[in-house]
Amino acid sequence: MPDLPATPRNLAGTLDRPLTAAGFHQLAAVPAEAVWFANLDNPRTRRAYQTDLRDFMDFAEIRQPDEFRLVTRAHVLAWRKVLEARALSGATIRRKLAALSSLFEYLCEKNAVDFNPVRGAKRPKVDSNEGRTPALGDHQARALLDAPDPATLKGKRDRALLSVLLYHGLRREELCKLTVRDIHARRGVLHLRVHGKGNKLRYLPLHAGSAGRIHAYLEAAGHGKSPDAPSSSRRAERRTQA
């Protein structure tokens, strides 16, 4: 982004005390573009969008925030053609166009521009049928599951952890939140009660292989009958060894 007047982040300290007349006018002078950028809370999103917008600004020779108001659909289409000529991936081009569109949607909302020149611009298709996460083959998964030493408590714990991850596809945070209480029978079938994002619960039938490994670990750790104990964690291991 170009050098801008004071932004809400720069002025955050002034909001801890009564706002002076000078401070009020300084806030009023903040360009809408700077406000939009300051409202991007995620650091990774901020870095990515900053890079993408700087790319467009270099292409369109934008040096001041108010010059965004001169951007037309022709500028966007020409930029997209340049991005394609650089042999960028479809996902990267989509992200760059999304960053620019996000800015213009905010400017439209604040009546800083009359329309979003990115809206309607065709974006590259991305094959959504293929996930980005590399998959393990059967032999690789088996080797990973059997890697920890089953003769040690740590090995039993790791075998249980890996089994739940591979057989049930849990996120790391979801796995860490599991307690013994979250392993229970529903209609005669053992299930895992998984605490997902936004405190949403879902119930997954417990794979027989996972059930055996979890039982082996809990029995060795000696806290299988404590409903609030972690089903598998370093803290549980340290308590047992103590």
Explain what the structure shows.
- The chain has 242 residues and is mostly helical.
- The chain has 2 domains: 98 residues, no CATH class; 104 residues, hpI Integrase, Chain A (Orthogonal Bundle).
- The chain is built from 10 helices and 3 strands; from the N terminus they run ααααααααβββαα.
- Strands 1-2-3 form a 3-stranded antiparallel beta sheet.
- Helix 6 packs antiparallel against helix 7 and helix 7 runs antiparallel to helix 9.
- The N terminus and C terminus are likely disordered.
Cα-to-Cα separation, first versus last residue: 55 Å
- The CATH superfamily of the largest domain turns out to be Intergrase catalytic core
Overall pLDDT level: 76
Name of the CATH class of the largest domain: Mainly Alpha
Radius of gyration: 27 Å
Class computed from helices, strands and strand pairing: mainly alpha
SSE run = HHHHHHHHEEEHH
Number of helices: 10
| DSSP helix fraction | 40-55%
Global shape: elongated
Give a count of the beta strands, DSSP E runs of length 2 or more: 3
Q: What profile does the largest beta sheet have?
A: 3 strands, antiparallel
Ranges with pLDDT <50 over ≥5 residues? 1-30, 233-242
Number of domains: 2
What's the arrangement of secondary structure elements?
Elements lengths: L20 H8 L3 H7 L4 H18 L12 H13 L4 H20 L28 H9 L6 H16 L3 H6 L5 E4 L2 E7 L5 E5 L2 H14 L12 H8 L1
Antiparallel strand pairs: 1-2, 2-3
Helix pairs in contact: 3-5, 6-7, 7-9
Task: Supply database-style keywords.
disordered N terminus; hpI Integrase, Chain A; mainly alpha; elongated; 242 residues; 2 domains; 3-stranded antiparallel sheet
